[in-house]
Amino acid sequence: MSQFTALVRVELTEAAKEYKYVWLTIFFVLLGLTQPLINLYMDLILQQMGGSIGVILDPDKPAPTANEVFLSTISGQFNQIGLIILLISFMGLIATDRQNGMQDFILTRPVSIHCYVSAKLIAHWFISMFSLGFGILTSYGCTVYLFGAFPMTKLISFSVLYSLWILYLISLVIVISMYVRHQVLIAISAIGISFLLLVLKNLDPVFSDGFPSSILNVAEHQLVRSSVVSYRSIFSCLLFTFLNLMWASKKLKN
Amino acid sequence: MNTEITPLLEIDWLQWLPLLIPIFSLHVLLIGITLFDWSNRKKQIALPYVWLFVILSMQLIGPILYLIVGRRSIRHDYHS
Fold first, then answer.
1. What parts of the sequence cross the membrane (chain B) (predicted)?
2. What is the interface pTM, i.e. ipTM, of the complex?
3. Which residues from chain B sit within 8 angstroms of residue A34, using beta carbons?
4. Each residue of A134-176: pLDDT tens digit?
5. B54 lies in which domain range?
6. Which of A6, A186, A228, B5 is buried most deeply by CB count within 10 Å?
């Protein structure tokens, strides 16, 4: 167990040396701050920048509620441009260790492979949730200030479910970097697979329970009630994460 | 593309100021950290002035690209 904490601590200090806590946090805070503002001031922006015969929004449209705006921040910004930046920042996860010989150095010591892989997973999950948490809190504060309150319990249950999706993404990057050597290719294939999963989650309500990305449907259900949702997808997301870890450590052993 | 700048002059900037200040200061903070790191590593990284251009020209994406990719690309000795 002390091996595990030591490996996690190595990852965390390395991230601190790269200022990863700072810039990833600033990035997500900016994302969380701009989307509610754009939602609120879309009328004004179109009026000012759209020219004299520009487009206008329907003046009779119902005003968006706070939880809808918050959901649009998450699914529109965090889950698209935020996901890309997050996966790009993960791309050196195993690959740099392999390139500078650190992996051989660690694995010739009496450290089990499961320990090494799960330490990577937990450490990077912690780093990304630190930054994402600040982003989500800023977005929540901004949304509540501009659009009115919605309960904090919804936010917490949403964030817990969303963090499981991030956990799956990191395990996906670990598996990919077992097979692909080049860092840019790791990032591109991880982005491709995760966007494919995001499309597949809305394909068919029964069939898509098997995909790990369908946990986002459950998470969105916490904010905006939808009719068809099944809690089996939480289980499938955790199962896929576990299988990815087993796969990666089996590949590393050979 | 709308290139007329008169609407920009008509905007009531005071009304927007409290909303723009946090966004603007976060951008400045990010670019500041990146430039600090760049000036420390100017001698080590490959193509330092190209990266300076990238940091200053593309806001938000440029500094992040430098921090992920640029600061790791170490110059080889035999090139210079």
1. 16-36, 48-69
2. 0.79
3. 23
4. 999 999 988 888 888 888 888 899 999 999 999 999 999 999 9
5. 26-79
6. A186
Interface of B with A (CB under 8 A): 2, 4, 7-8, 10-11, 19, 22-23, 26-27, 29-30, 33-34, 37, 60, 63-64, 67-68, 71-72
User: CA nearest A194: which of A170, A228, A220?
Assistant: A170
Token pair belonging to A156: 């917490």
Angle at alpha carbon of residue A123, lines to A122 and A125, rounded to 5° = 65
Query: Does residue B39 lie within any of the structural domains?
Result: yes
| 3-class SS of residue B18 | helix
What are residue B74's DSSP bridge partners? B45
- Residue B8 placed within a domain: no
pTM of the model: 0.86
Q: Can you tell me the distance from the alpha carbon of A200 to that of A209, in angstroms, rounded to the nearest whole number?
A: 10
CA distances from A140 to A29, A71, A219, A223 (A): 11, 10, 15, 12
In a domain, B32, yes or no: yes
Q: Which two tokens stand for residue A155?
A: 């936010």
Q: What angle do CA A96, A181, A9 make, to 5 degrees?
A: 25
SS3 content of chain A, % helix, strand, coil (to 5): 80, 0, 20
* Inside any domain, residue B60: yes
